[in-house]
Write a structure and sequence with these properties.
The protein is mainly beta. The chain contains no helices and five strands.
Length: 100
């Protein structure tokens, strides 16, 4: 997708959602472009904007695991749920809970 302007949908995001600062590609072709350590903005219809760090991404980009900011733990997000994920800054080291 090219030529998108503010106020258009981004990866299933709510129309009008703002995100990213140009550090990485703001308009992703899909969640498979994300990698562990990416800081992202999470945009869902009817919810406040949230932030987190990508822990893992399924190869097809259908599911992303995030460490949510504010000590809220790890969340599994499904791209089919219409959630927008937008890179917001430099990559962070991925936190590991030690599970194998």
């Amino acid at each position: 997708m090219t030529g998108l302007t503010p106020g258009t949908d981004r990866i299933g995001a709510v129309s009008g959602a703002e995100g990213g600062d140009g550090n990485r590609q703001d308009l992703l072709n899909g969640w498979s472009d994300l990698i562990g350590g990416d800081r992202v903005e999470v945009v869902r219809a009817g919810f406040p904007v949230e932030f987190g760090v990508v822990d893992a991404v399924m190869p097809d980009g259908s599911i992303v695991w995030l460490w949510m900011d504010g000590g809220r733990g790890r969340a599994m997000l499904f791209s089919s749920d219409g959630i927008g994920l937008h890179p917001t800054g430099p990559r962070c080291p991925v936190i590991s809970d030690g599970a194998k």
